[in-house]
Amino acid sequence: MKKHIVLLPGDGIGPEVTKAAKGVLETIAEQFGHSFTFETHEIGGAAIDNQGTPLPEDTVAACKKADGILLGAVGGPKWDQLPSHMRPEKGLLGIRKQLGLFANLRPVKGFKSLLHASPLKEEVVAGSDLLIVRELTGGLYFGEPRERRNNGAEVVDTLAYTRAEMERIIDKAFQSAQVRRNHLTSVDKANVLESSRMWREVVEEKKQDYPDVHVEHMLVDAAAMKLVTNPAYFDVIVTENMFGDILSDEASVLTGSLGMLPSASIRQDGLGLYEPVHGSAPDIAGQNKANPLAAILSAAMMLRHSFQMNGEAELIEAAVNKVLEEKYHTADLNLTDGVQVSGSVLAKKVSEQMSSHDTTENIMWCYA
Ligand SMILES: NC(=O)c1ccc[n+]([C@@H]2O[C@H](COP(=O)([O-])OP(=O)(O)OC[C@H]3O[C@@H](n4cnc5c(N)ncnc54)[C@H](O)[C@@H]3O)[C@@H](O)[C@H]2O)c1
Ligand SMILES: CC(C)[C@H](C(=O)O)[C@@H](O)C(=O)O
Ligand SMILES: [Mg+2]
Predict the structure, then answer these.
(1) In terms of residue numbers, what domain contains 306?
(2) Bind-site residues for Mg(2+)
């Protein structure tokens, strides 16, 4: 199969982890006889430096024509003092919005061989396998007005949603629950926010369409606590943009590192931008220390979601599992046992494992 992939490496560790994921995709192409072509574009701080804007028009145009998009990360201290419309993060928010990527799927599954990498007790982490379905193009991130007022004496951000925006993400989450364990937890702050009260109404209306799914409501503060005390309780969590951002970094603790969490930012027709949950990690950028697995697993999500290449995605996931079982890991996992390697060596191990045909265990993450 022929597929055209746009790479948006971005800033900090973005280029390192994107290169690692590209290498794994090349191994897939070789093994399965696919033809993947790649085109690299700037976004974020790199684009500000070279083109004066965090989201150049040619980047958007290339993404619109792509079969799949793989992003590294954007941002860093170099650009922190720029006005908000010129920050690298605006490039990421802009591409999500312009492409209509309203659903962000963030699967969180602890690999068995990494249970002891979490700072939580192994018996707490064991059995956790959840999916955060985060609304990605609305809420506080995009609501207007957002401004300083009264000579800087006041400031306003706006949390706005239309009912239609809520309906489509809640539908997506019910559908994800149907292919998983039929348990949906809708997370909100309905004791305080009007938007959350409407969110609850929409969930209540939608549940009539999915009678096989057990749905409940949970306040975000309580959910944050339960995520680290009883994570195995959760199957699918659906929540608005900002809550989903925060809960997903928290959930990464279950896997041992933020460098383990992949994500898919998708829309209905299958186009997707695949991005690790982590950021540009300026503290380790350029040192070949970054864990490439979140980016590699994001590439696997691209194969499954945008290209319908399930076997190929499973091969990557199984190879990652095997490499971890063989106790190779990067420094972020903070392990005292096993073999600590650089990011590029870990990525190479994954590709070698894929070519060895010794990856039989299907550890597939289920998400729809
Ligand atoms: N998707 C994105 O592009 C994205 C996501 C989050 C943050 N950011 C941006 O990244 C910059 C830094 O933000 P931050 O420091 O709060 O968050 P971060 O995710 O970049 O880093 C948080 C911590 O996790 C570590 N870490 C993250 N990814 C890792 C990996 N793959 N391997 C090993 N360790 C890893 C970092 O070293 C750091 O200690 C900010 O400008 C922020 O806006 C971008
Ligand atoms: C960089 C930032 C804008 C982004 C977000 O908040 O969506 C990041 O934290 C993420 O989780 O993808
Ligand atoms: Mg985040």
Answers:
(1) 1-106+257-368
(2) 221, 245, 249
